[in-house]
Specification:
The complex is a heterodimer of chains A (199) and B (69). Chain A has 199 residues and is mainly α. Chain A has one domain. Helix content of chain A is 57%, strand content 2%. Chain A is built from ten helices and two strands; from the N terminus they run H-H-H-H-E-E-H-H-H-H-H-H. A two-stranded antiparallel sheet of chain A has the order 1-2. In chain A, helix 4 runs antiparallel to helix 8. Chain A is elongated. Chain B has one domain. Chain B is 81% helix and 0% strand. The chains are: A mainly alpha (199), B mainly alpha (69). At the A-B interface, helix 4 and helix 8 of A face helix 2 and helix 3 of B.
Chain lengths: 199, 69
């Protein structure tokens, strides 16, 4: 039974690119952008992913920083009533670089801040939490104005882009140039009916 | 009023913040579709142009709507 074109492409990808252990590669790709591809020996793509994703994330962190309130205020984890930070679900896509936000969120419950103000969750307005002199969400918005939104968008997009990179590490690229031509020449040796079925 | 606000966005530096994002998105998206560097670059150029055209069309639609209201 002849394979469908989609199945043939999938087989070609696996034959032409050594994905090694795809699940381990996907985990590494999540941990540090490009690390999974480096593990698979796809160095050029590893560099491309690392540079594009990390520069986007870093620039977002820079935009969301303030001399008074500290660095990286746009990346924080919060699931408290009145401040559910849904953006963090995408920002965590970059893996380890966004992890300090989780540590800070856990620390904030106990009134601790292992990384100081870096990625620390803001105080909720009129709340009685243990975040002491930390700025509120409203103060962050007032102080940073549009840069808070810009930084949030940059870091969110970086996380989403890394999810694409994780799928690339897991299953390889969608299209492999040159392989289709090889497939055509291979099919040319078969019957006309088979070659027609795979076009 | 709304039209002038939209056009003023062109005069300020705000729209330039989209440029690094367009570059990063088009490069990463293209890299998920191809393996060879040359093919990735060509595809990313196409994707980048497509994104800019798409944003321009949306901008013009918003301008027309603002002008009609």
């Amino acid at each position: 039974m002849a394979n469908t074109p989609e199945e043939n492409v999938g087989e070609n990808v696996e034959e032409s690119i050594s994905l090694k252990d795809p699940y381990w590669a996907a985990f590494l790709a999540w941990l540090i952008p490009g690390l999974g591809h480096l593990y698979q020996g796809r160095t050029a793509k590893a560099v491309l992913y690392f540079v594009c994703i990390m520069s986007t994330f870093s620039y977002g962190l820079y935009l969301g920083s303030d001399s008074e309130y500290g660095w990286g205020r746009v990346v924080y984890a919060s699931w408290r009533p009145g401040d559910k930070r849904l953006y963090f679900l995408s920002q965590i896509g970059v893996g380890l670089p966004a992890m300090p936000a989780l540590v800070q969120a856990i620390g904030a419950r106990n009134g601790k801040a292992p990384f100081g103000e870096f990625m620390a969750p803001p105080r909720i307005q009129r709340s009685e939490d243990d975040l002491g002199g930390r700025p509120s969400v409203h103060q962050l918005h007032r102080r940073m104005a549009r840069y808070f939104e810009l930084g949030t968008i940059y870091t969110t997009v970086a996380g989403l882009l890394n999810i694409l990179a994780i799928f690339d590490a897991l299953a390889g690229p969608i299209v492999v140039p040159g392989k289709e031509e090889e497939e055509e020449s291979d099919k040319g040796e078969g019957t006309k009916d088979e070659s027609g079925a795979n076009q | 009023m709304m039209n002038s606000q939209l056009l003023s966005a062109l005069e300020t530096v705000d729209l330039w913040y989209a440029l690094p994002l367009i570059v990063a998105v088009s490069l990463v998206y293209s890299a998920t579709r191809h393996e060879e560097t040359g093919a990735i670059m060509i595809q990313s150029l196409r994707t980048g142009i497509w994104i800019i055209c798409f944003m321009t069309v949306i901008f013009l639609i918003l301008m027309v709507i603002a002008w009609l209201l």
